Amino acid sequence: MALPSAPPRRRLRVAVVGAGVNGIAAAKAFRGAGHQVVCYEARAQLGGVWAPASHYPGLRLQAPRELYVFPDTGPLPPPEYDEEYPTAAKVYAYLKSYADKYGVTPCIQYNTRLVRAEPLYDRSDGGAATAASTAAAPGVAATVTVSALPTHAADGGKGLDGAAKGTAAAPAAGAAPAADAGVAAAVSSTGPAAAPVGWRLTLRTVPPELQQAEAGQCGGGGGGGGGGAAAAPAGPTLDKGGEGQDAGPREWAEEVDVLIIASGSFDDPKPPAYKGVQDFLAAGGEVLHTAHLRTALRRALAAAQTQKGQQQPRAGASGGAGDNGPCAIAAGASAPGPAVVTARFPAEPERGTEEGTEGGMEAGTDAGTEGGMEGAERDACRRFAQLLAGGRRVVVVGNGKSGDDVAAMLAASGAAASVTHLCRRNKWAVPRAFAGLVSLKWTLGTRAGVSLMRPLHPRPWPLGPLWEAARWPLLRLMEAGMRLQQGLAAAGAVPPHPLDVGLDASLHVEPPGYFAAVHGGRLQRRLGAVGALEAGAVVLGDGSRLEADLLILATGFRRSMPFLPPDLYGKIVRPDGTLDMYHAIYPHEIGGRSLFVLGWNPGLYGCLIADIAARWVLEMAEGRIRVSREQMRAYNERLYAWADAHFSPVAAADIRSGITVAYTWAHVDDMLHDMGASFARLTPWERLRLYCAPVAADLYTKVKATIPSERP
Question: Is Flavoprotein found in the keyword set (predicted)?
């Protein structure tokens, strides 16, 4: 069933949750189209994982600078990117400058969290809307009748109408319906109403000085919807009249036409619950997730800055009263709760950002390695390693990007008594330069290079068979070069699948010095899994023991949307993790034009994907995407069948969960196709750049200009 024609254009009230890369792109797109936008950011800074309060020293882009820019930045790297692999501080400066330039910064309300989102359903008796929360989480109102998206705010801060919180404005006479009722009828046929036409949001603003008291966990999130910081807020914040900020956290409600969840996938750490953890802790051991490691670093650096000359406590050894430190994981403890985790001490000066994401080629760290680091960064990394691991026997579990980063940092510092990297399976880690000569930006940074991977859409005959015959030997040559260059056989690190078969979310760039540390004996690498913990040791599944005082878990993050009613979340994510979202953006089983998710579709080029996806959301919200729910389902089923047929089980599961690493360019092109964009206006020289130059993100500005303002 096709979506009906778009309703007459009106100004939408848009809430963006998270001011990371995806949130900035979404706010820019909707603000540029004349809509009313507020971006709610839980931290005191924009930038998500790149925010200064979210990182440890040494973190920088793991991919060349050309691969991490928005299209309208232009053909040259931004001035903030004055080196090939910019530090996280420089990436943050770029994002801040970009948000300032395009008017996003004034739209951001910092230190504000989404607590609950209730769908508003259109009624046929005059345009009133109903906020329903069937099977809602405890504490969520079952059913509330509200007027059709009045401009009001009940408490704290500034609302979408610009009024100070604590005031309530009556709905304007003759207010327009929240959304086109026909859209709802076309997209969904179940529930008390066809599809949501808007959302009632419960928001909580926590003044920075109170975030420490409210935070129940340590660590930070990934995308901006969670996380926190204790720096002074900027942008629209609490009205300082009335009760004042010392009254504590405040909650209020907003009603919006469009809710864009851009809080990312890295808010909720996923630490396993090991047997024997209490015995390990009782013997003086410590267990940290890498998300908590960031907090431990910030604590150590803050202590070093404020207590110069004094002996500093071991990171994580003291903190939360009555526990094993704020970063310790007790037996059976769950990961930090709802998408909101806050730091407990002041933000440090800008240096660099959070651990690399498990599924992209952007964020990464050279922490502790000799190559590519400035002296101040290197010193800070060594100081942190000494505080965290000095004289201790360290085991790092997990070999995605963050696991490789931490293991390399600790091994290079020489601070620990021993560093062992425990890997469940071998994974591909791409070198910065193949054979030490060809930068990865000319291979995996180009359309031509990525086309060596398995295509989502079959190429026409005879191009398809010819290209297949050519790509196979080229890939095998690339793999052979990596084995030789990194010494994978000697390190026992040869992956079980070819690169194009095992192309899962863990694909990342090798931290400089990682394999050198393995071959030099400074880093012990073991294959296996943790079976249990005991006093002073990690027991592996095969019964062997690794002596350890510190266990660092690079075990990834779980996705969650605790602010959504469980019945709606179940229409987005299946029990096995498969997404029912078109392009991993639009929850077609919920329907309507009011709910979108950005940041669950990580690929090779974060800024470009964020920009194209944000424009797709704008086109969909304004009613110009002409794809039916049946077509969306069919697209996903074909995508998932392709994944199951051509990739390893892990890589196929990643594709089902929205990861686009294996088909990044098809993902981008399919979104552009939905919008009616065309590459026809590109000159022959621009087409050559499009395929052979690193990303060539600037050309997509010209491509987006071809999107028709009206479509039949």
Answer: yes
Phi first, then psi, for residue 115 (nearest 5°) are -95, -40
Map residue 570 onto helix, strand or coil: coil
Domain boundaries, the chain: 13-266+559-625, 677-712
- Which residues touch 145 (CB under 8 Å, ≥6 apart)? 128, 129, 130, 131
Q: What percent of the chain has pLDDT over 70?
A: 70
Question: One-letter amino acid identity for 59?
Answer: L
- Pinpoint the alpha helices (H) of 540-663: 566-569, 606-621, 629-646, 649-656
* Closest C-alpha to 650, from 453, 505, 437, 496: 505
What 3-state DSSP class applies to 108? strand
Helix (H, G, I), strand (E, B) or coil at 639: helix
Using an 8 Å Cβ cutoff, are 506 and 360 in contact?
no
Q: Which of 253-267, 313-327, 509-523, 679-693 has the lowest mean pLDDT?
A: 313-327
Number of other residues whose CB lies within 10 A of the CB of residue 519: 14
Q: Contact at 8 Å (CB) between 44 and 230?
A: yes
Burial 55-74 (b: 16+ CB within 10 A, else e): bbbbbbbbbbbbbbbbbebe
Q: Which CATH superfamily is domain 13-266+559-625 in?
A: FAD/NAD(P)-binding domain (3.50.50.60)
Backbone angle region of 422, left / alpha / beta, with phi > 0 → left and psi within -120 to 50 → alpha: beta
Average pLDDT for 324-333 = 31
The residue behind tokens 């610009």 is 162
- 431 sits in the region (left: phi over 0; alpha: psi -120 to 50; else beta) called beta
Give yes or no for a contact between 477 and 497, defined as CB atoms under 8 angstroms apart: no
pLDDT digits (tens, 9 = 90+) for 114-164: 999 999 998 654 444 555 543 333 333 333 333 333 333 333 344 554 433
Whose structure tokens read 């592996």? 540
CA 406 to CA 395: how far, in whole Å? 10
From residue 538, how far is each of 213, 278, 316 by CA, in Å?
34, 12, 20
Residue 240 has pLDDT above 60, yes or no: no
Average pLDDT over residues 33-42: 96
Report the alpha-carbon angle 68-72-75, nearest 5: 70
Tell me how far CA of residue 436 lies from CA of 64, 116, 178, 344, 433, in angstroms: 15, 51, 57, 43, 5
φ/ψ bin of 183: left (φ > 0), alpha (ψ from -120 to 50), beta (otherwise): alpha
Eight-state DSSP code of residue 4? P
* Cβ-proximal residues to 380 (8 Å cutoff; 6+ apart), any chain: 57, 58, 301, 351
The whole-number pLDDT of residue 394 equals: 97
DSSP secondary structure code for residue 333 in this structure: P
In terms of Cβ atoms closer than 10 Å to its own Cβ (0-12, 13-18, 19+), residue 524 is: middle
| 518-421-412 Cα angle (round to 5) | 50
Cβ-Cβ contacts under 8 Å for 437 (sequence gap 6 or more): none
| pLDDT: which is higher, 209 or 179 | 209
Work out the percent of the chain whose per-residue pLDDT is above 90: 54
Residue 168 to residue 157: CA distance in whole angstroms: 12
Q: CA nearest 339: which of 211, 228, 206, 199?
A: 228
Range with the largest mean pLDDT of 133-137, 142-146, 298-302, 674-678: 674-678
**pLDDT grade for 48, boundaries at 50, 70 and 90:** confident
What is the mean predicted confidence (pLDDT) over 596-609? 92
User: What pLDDT is recorded for position 165?
Assistant: 38
Maximum CA extent, the chain: 75
Mean pLDDT of the chain: 77
Mind listing the pLDDT tens digit for each residue in 604-628?
Answer: 899 999 999 999 999 999 999 989 9
